[in-house]
Structure formats: C-alpha cells, structure tokens
C-alpha cells in the first residue's frame, strides 16, 4: 500500500510537470520542417520609395530588401535581410510574411494577416526558443525585432517553403513591416529571381493541411523528458 501511494504521488508530480509546459502552438500542431524546397529558388522583396504609413515623410521610406533562397539541401530557406532608415520612434519594429500580395495601390492593409497555415494566431507572443510553435510568417518573432535604425541579418528558417502549392509557400505573398503598436509602415511583394527544377514531393511533413505531430525542441523540453524518464524509472522500481 505504501509503495502504491508513493507511485501515485510520483506520477501525479510528473503529470503536473508536463502540464506546466504550457506552450502555445497551432490548432494543426507545430509548424513542420520543409525538406523538399527546390534548390536554387530565390525570391526578393524590395521596399518601395514611398512609405505607406506617411508618404510625405521627408526621411522617406525604410530602405532595403529581403532575399530568400532555398537551402542547397532543400531544407528550409535562407533569408538575407538588409534594411535601414527605420523611423526614429515607434519601435521596436516587427516584420512578417503576410498572406496576400501588395495590391497595385500599395495599400499595406490589404496584405491581410500573417502567414499562419497551422492556425496559431498572434495573441500569445512567439517564443524564439521554440520556433516550430510560432506562426510560419512571424520572422521577427523567431529571429529578432528591429531595435534601431537598421537591420542586417542572415538566418535559415526551416518552416518556409519555395514550393508553390504548400501553405508555407511565400513566393506569391508579401512582407510587411510594423511599428510596435502593429501599425503598418511599409510592405513589398516577393519576386522570383532564380528558378529551380521542382522535384517530386516526398515525405508526410510537407503539407500544412495535414495534422503534424507536436514535437517540442530545446533545452527545456530535453530536461523535461529526462526528468520524466527518471521519475518513471523510480516509480517502476518501487513496484518491483
């Protein structure tokens, strides 16, 4: 009886520890790694001369571009961000891939919401330590906001796609920049620069319409798993 009680306490503690990991992810689970991007596919978004928020701003618009190239091994996309001349106030500034392209009139509000094929939402902030739980399009949430007047950065996002047809494909979409209060400053469409031969789709982790397995990464998750195994072993030993 005593051993059974101890086992019950141990298992209750383990369950509470797991539940404590209150991590927000999408309704369809975590974003899946894209591993079949056509190598060589490159898209470029160049910001316009006039600012959407204040077209008459004497300082002009944010200057620069964002290029995105499929990784040589087809896993993820390499983003190269080179931007300057952000507003002198209103930061830190955020930027995201948005669902719709910028229309001919340049109205950034018409780019609609963030690219979010796994239906995560943006009410709870993205945790950069767990990028798979973030919106696919939340680039600044995963890789850092713009905290001063410029940003030069290169990073690989494993969840973006250069393969047309997938929910995480951004080539026919836009990138939009915001003040800290979410007001839109400027936006630009992606344009295909370099094409590539699209290989046949392989694997099950390539469609945003499928329900992926929720897998947590990072040190915290590994520690939780180790603790779980230790508690489980202790409980088993008490039963023997």
Automatic annotation (TrEMBL):
Enzyme's top EC category: oxidoreductase
GO cellular component: extracellular region
Protein name as it appears in the record: superoxide dismutase
Domain of life: Eukaryota
Enzyme Commission no: 1.15.1.1
Chief location of this protein within or outside the cell: other
InterPro entries on file: SOD-like_Cu/Zn_dom_sf
Gene Ontology terms, MF aspect: metal ion binding; superoxide dismutase activity
Reactions catalysed: 2 superoxide + 2 H(+) = H2O2 + O2
Family assignment from sequence similarity: Belongs to the Cu-Zn superoxide dismutase family.
Cell location: Cell envelope; Secreted
UniProt-listed Gene3D superfamilies: Superoxide dismutase, copper/zinc binding domain
Signal peptide: 1-20
Upper classification of the organism: Eukaryota, Fungi, Dikarya, Ascomycota, Pezizomycotina
Alphabetical keyword list: Antioxidant, Secreted, Signal
């Amino acid at each position: 009886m005593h051993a059974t009680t101890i086992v019950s306490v141990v298992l209750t503690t383990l369950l509470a520890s797991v539940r404590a990991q209150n991590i927000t992810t999408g309704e369809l689970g975590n974003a899946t790694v894209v591993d079949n991007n056509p190598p060589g596919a490159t898209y470029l978004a160049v910001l316009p001369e006039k600012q959407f928020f204040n077209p008459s701003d004497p300082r002009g618009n944010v200057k620069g571009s964002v290029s995105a190239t499929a990784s040589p091994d087809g896993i993820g996309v390499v983003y190269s961000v080179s931007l300057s001349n952000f507003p002198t106030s209103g930061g830190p500034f955020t930027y995201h891939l948005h669902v719709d392209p910028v229309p001919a009139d340049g109205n950034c509000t018409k780019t609609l919401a963030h690219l979010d094929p796994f239906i995560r939402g943006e009410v709870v902030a993205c945790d950069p330590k767990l990028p798979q739980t973030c919106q696919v399009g939340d680039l600044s949430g995963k890789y850092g906001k713009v905290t001063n007047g410029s940003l030069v950065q290169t990073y690989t996002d494993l969840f973006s796609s250069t393969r047309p047809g997938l929910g995480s494909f951004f080539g026919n979409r836009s990138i939009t920049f915001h003040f800290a209060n979410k007001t839109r400053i400027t936006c630009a469409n992606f344009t295909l620069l370099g094409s590539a031969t699209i290989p046949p789709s392989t694997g099950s982790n390539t469609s945003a319409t499928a329900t992926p397995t929720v897998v947590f990464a990072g040190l915290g998750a590994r520690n939780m798993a180790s603790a779980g195994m230790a508690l489980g072993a202790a409980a088993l030993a008490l039963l023997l």
